[in-house]
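Friendly challenge for the regulars: who can give me the structure tokens for this chain first? No prize, just bragging rights.
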Amino acid sequence: MGQPAEDAGFIIASKHRTAVALRLDASPAIPKAIKTDTDRPYSRVSDALEQLREEGLVELLVPEERSKGRLYGLTDRGDEAVQYMRDTNM
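First reply, four minutes later:
Bragging rights claimed.
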């Protein structure tokens, strides 16, 4: 099993990580937009973003010091994992 499959497995182990990753596959977004678009509590979005960042699947696209407008996007690995999820109908 390769890296995209392992990463996809990590993502789909949580419905919140799945929702966040799929939302970010559409375009980069700030947490408020992810919350609105996925209909998830802000705390769940925040936790999912942190977990996905720790795994190297999501990255902060603005300086770390910024407190508002923290734009997140998928990394190349995250993009490959989501593509694997779509290709295998996960």
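The longest strand covers residues 58-60. The CA atoms of residues 1 and 7 lie 10 Å apart. Your move, everyone else.
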